[in-house]
Amino acid sequence: MMGRAVRIVVIGLLCFLPTICSGTNTFVLSEVHLGGTDQLTVADVVRGLNLKLGEPTTRQTLVGACAHFKELRLFRSTHCHPTIHGRSSVTLDISVEGEGMWVVFDNFVWTTRAELLVRLKQEIPLFKPGLPESSGLTSDILRVLQQVVNERGIKGSVRYDDRFWVLRGMNVFYIEGISTPVTALRIDGENAPSSEELVKWSAFYTNKDFSAARLTWVIDFVKRDLYRPRGYLRPIVAEPVVQFLGEKDGTFPVRVILPISSGHLYTFDSVKFEGLAKEHTASLLSKWKLQPGDPYDKAYVNAFVTNEILSTPWATHSKTESDEALACVKIDADTKKVSLTITVESPKKTRTYGPETISHECGTVTKTLIFPATN
User: Fold this and answer.
1) In this predicted structure, which of 49-63, 229-243, 257-271, 273-287 has the lowest mean pLDDT?
2) Which of 79-83, 167-171, 191-195, 347-351 has the lowest mean pLDDT?
3) What are phi and psi of 281, to 5 degrees?
């Protein structure tokens, strides 16, 4: 987001000559104009900076409020300074850029994210759902969340994870010392896998102390293992639902529901092998089992490349340590058919790719933003 201005207009009733205005002159704050973010309101800024509309203030107070706003680091970039205009008004201009990373409440499974956001907003006016790493509000957030935990009678200290999850683009707050295992996974939506397949697949996760924040990994694995092998290449996942199942012997087990829309079914159309002698190409085609009209199975393609190509180097490439096989996918948007070109190359060959491409023939990759897991 580009920086936009946050303007606070102050009308001075007691300063008549700009040449004698100083930090001790008294003004009346009459109006606030806010722009540049949709996560804060005028009321948030006024209350959060301890300013009061219609009551006396000083230029020194505004300078202090401006400095405090910068120190809070609510945005990646903040520019703030008061300016005197004529005889009677002062403006406080704040330019901001960047809303920050999503705030995640990891194992607060006995409440909802919405309830926690309301509580934080009540007690911390400048709180917003997206904050930069270790912002100036972190200690206040910890204080309020600890109050919530204490009121619930839960024995545990609230902590901020400033390393592991920050590297993954999230501001994660968690309760140290309590267990919130995911004891069941459920998928809601069209073309979901069978319940038997899901139970078998999820056994690993339901036998671990697997917290809500780590759902970001589960979502990727669900799509990879349960949708793409069946031809659903672009499933859409809505926000997970975490159901608290009640405290049991000091643990707080949950059921996780993943709302997933499978999207279109993509079918296999054809495959070509390039970079090989004719006899090698013919051999690979004879081993290829995916037929036209079958659901496109990316897992099959990956296994074929590994087992039939990379694990079996040919004499023509024996001077290199390892060949490379580039699987380039082309999708017909109208027919939803997938054609595939697998090119075998020596790793010493120089290739230049764009930042969003698989290879020189593959076109672009559509990236899906995975939201942080929330409860």
Assistant:
1) 49-63
2) 347-351
3) -60, -45
Q: Where are the domains of the chain?
A: 4-97, 101-176, 182-261, 267-345
- The correct CATH number of 101-176 out of 3.30.70, 3.30.2010, 3.40.50, 3.10.20 is 3.10.20
Report whether pLDDT(115) > 80. yes
Q: How far apart are CA 273 and CA 271, in angstroms?
A: 7
pLDDT digits (tens, 9 = 90+) for 292-316: 999 999 889 989 988 888 777 554 4
Q: Do domains 101-176 and 267-345 have the same CATH topology?
A: yes
The length of the chain in residues reads 375
Using alpha carbons, select from 80, 85, 11 the residue that is nearest to residue 45.
Answer: 80
Q: If one looks up domain 182-261 in CATH, what number appears?
A: 3.10.20
Judged on CB neighbours under 10 Å (0-12, 13-18, 19+), 261 is middle
Q: Which CATH architecture has domain 267-345?
A: Roll (3.10)
Residue 300 CB coordination number (10 Å): 16
Q: Contact, 116 vs 183, CB < 8 A?
A: no
CA distances, 309 to each of 325, 359, 373 (Å): 7, 18, 38
Whether 25 has a pLDDT exceeding 80, the answer reads no
- Is a pLDDT exceeding 70 seen at residue 39? yes
Q: If DSSP codes are grouped into helix, strand and coil, which group holds residue 283? A: helix
d(Cα 210, Cα 156) in Å, to the nearest integer?
18
| CB-neighbour burial class of residue 12 (10 A; exposed 0-12, middle 13-18, buried 19+) | buried
Give strand ranges (E) for the chain.
4-11, 26-33, 56-58, 77-85, 89-97, 101-105, 130-131, 157-161, 170-176, 182-188, 236-237, 241-244, 254-261, 267-274, 324-331, 337-345
DSSP string, 157-210: EEEEE-STTGGGTEEEEEEET-B--EEEEEEESTTPPPHHHHHHHHHHHHTS--
What pTM does this model have?
0.64
User: What confidence score (pLDDT) does residue 334 get?
Assistant: 93
